[in-house]
Structure formats: C-alpha cells, structure tokens
C-alpha cells in the first residue's frame, strides 16, 4: 500500500517556483512557524478545506506525465519536513523510478529531518527564506524563535558542506534594515561563499489585495517597501561578494 501524504495539491508545470527552472510543484500541509505575512497559512494550519490525504503513487503518476516539461520536482508548503518520513519516500521514488531532480523549499528550522534527507542524497536543490529579523517574522515567542534560528544556521552549514544549489530568498518587510542584513551576512557569509551555485532573491512582502496574509493588520503596516530600499539591499549583498542577486516582486 502506498504511503499517504497530507497535501493541498500540485501544479504539473510551474515557471515561478524554482528560479530559472520549470518545476512540478507539490504543496504539503502543516508548518511549525506562524509568519504573519504568510499567504499559504490555511494549508500551513492544516485547514481541511484545502488539505487532503493523497497517496505517493498518485503524486508520482501525475509527476510522470510532466517529466518532459520540467527540471525539478519541487516540494513546498507549509513546511514539508514535518512529513519527513513520507517525504523521503516520495523523493526516493521520484529519483529511483523517474530520474527527476528534487527541489525542497523548507524553512530549515528542523535539524534531524533535514540532515537525514541530505545524508541520503535525496535533495538536489534547496530553496529557503532568510527571514530577518527572525524574531519579528517567525511569529513565535522569542525563546522559540531563538532556538529555531540556531537550527537554521546549523542547516545552512549542512547545505554548504554538501554544496547543494541554494536559492536564498530574503522576504523584505519594513522591519528589515541595512544593519540587520549586514549583521546576518557577517554570520552566514562563511557558509554562503562555500556554495558553487547560489542565487539570492530579494522579495518584497506584498499584502492585500494581492495576497491574503495570516495577519492583514501586520501586513498593512509592515509590507510594501520602495524600490530605492530594494536597490540598497542589493548593493549591500554585492558589497559582501554575492554577484547573483535578483529582485523578484511576485508575492512572497
């Protein structure tokens, strides 16, 4: 019997979920963060109105029909690592039977599941948000946010050790400033500079009416920054030696 996975569905061909690539994108339900700007919060909170149990066989069958059009199976959420056991089965099956590359979009705050997938060679590409300042963007109590930030740093180290292609997305709110970004880059730059394939996406947060965030009030107050500020952040990244930096204005 095929294993089950809790999902809000998939898109057979997507042009926007992996930078410069075409993907079959699968959304998994559940998340351990409470980001106030999240526009996938219903699936993140396991809303039965948008989530359902599907079999891995169903996903693989649909994925197989899209193989000639895609570069990656891209699994996102929510937080896929909450379903790491079924996720590992899916990634293993996709790699073994379909020979498709696997991309994982994760918040990288869960250490053991992430390490297991990397150690098994089940991930060919990682996408993650660098949420700054994390204690404002995680939507969690400070002591929990601090612990998850340490996990994030450890997982970033693992990505650098495995030299997995990384798409590092920086969601930009009005909480972010040059000093916060500089401090973070001084901390994580040693990992990022080890990577042979890194793209950094500057992605301003977008609120209503384009998205329906978890907290409309938060987003009205903190989403939406000007082009001059985005250019400033891009300049900071370039001064730290990062050359592949993209400003992307689709909803984050």
Report on the architecture of this protein.
With 252 residues, this protein is an alpha/beta fold. 38% of the residues lie in helices and 21% in strands. The protein has helices at residues 41-44, 56-64, 84-98, 111-119, 134-137, 142-162, 178-192, 216-222, 227-239; strands at 4-14, 23-28, 52-55, 72-76, 101-105, 125-129, 166-172, 198-204, 245-247. A nine-stranded mixed sheet has the order 3-1-2-4-5-6-7-8-9. Strand 7 (166-172), helix 7 (178-192) and strand 8 form a beta-alpha-beta unit. Helix 4 (111-119) packs parallel to helix 6 (142-162) and helix 7 packs parallel to helix 9 (227-239). The longest helix has 21 residues, at 142-162.
Structure characteristics:
single chain; 252 residues; alpha/beta; nine-stranded mixed beta sheet; 9 helices; 21% strand
What are the SSEs and their pairings?
Layout: E1 4-14, E2 23-28, H1 41-44, E3 52-55, H2 56-64, E4 72-76, H3 84-98, E5 101-105, H4 111-119, E6 125-129, H5 134-137, H6 142-162, E7 166-172, H7 178-192, E8 198-204, H8 216-222, H9 227-239, E9 245-247
Helix pairs in contact: 2-3, 4-6, 7-9
């Amino acid at each position: 019997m095929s294993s089950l996975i809790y999902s809000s569905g998939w898109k057979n061909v997507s042009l926007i979920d992996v930078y410069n690539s075409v993907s079959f994108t699968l959304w998994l339900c559940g998340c351990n963060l409470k980001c106030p700007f999240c526009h996938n919060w219903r699936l993140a909170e396991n809303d039965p109105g948008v989530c359902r149990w599907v079999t891995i066989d169903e996903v693989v069958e649909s994925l197989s029909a899209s193989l000639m059009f895609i570069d990656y199976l891209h699994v996102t959420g929510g937080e896929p690592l909450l379903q790491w056991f079924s996720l590992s089965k899916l990634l293993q099956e996709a790699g073994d039977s379909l020979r498709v590359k696997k991309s994982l979009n994760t918040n990288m705050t869960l250490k053991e599941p992430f390490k297991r997938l990397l150690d098994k060679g089940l991930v060919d590409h990682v996408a993650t948000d660098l949420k700054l300042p994390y204690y404002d963007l995680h939507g969690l109590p400070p002591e929990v946010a601090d612990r998850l930030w340490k996990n994030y740093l450890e997982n970033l180290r693992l990505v650098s050790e495995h030299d997995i292609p990384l798409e590092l997305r920086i969601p930009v709110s009005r909480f972010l400033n040059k000093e916060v970004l500089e401090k973070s880059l001084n901390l994580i730059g040693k990992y990022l500079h080890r990577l042979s394939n890194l793209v950094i996406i500057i992605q301003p947060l977008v609120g209503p009416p384009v998205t329906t965030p978890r907290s409309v009030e938060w987003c009205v107050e903190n989403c939406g920054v000007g082009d001059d500020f985005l250019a400033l952040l891009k300049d900071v990244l370039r001064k730290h030696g990062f050359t592949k930096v993209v400003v992307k204005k689709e909803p984050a």
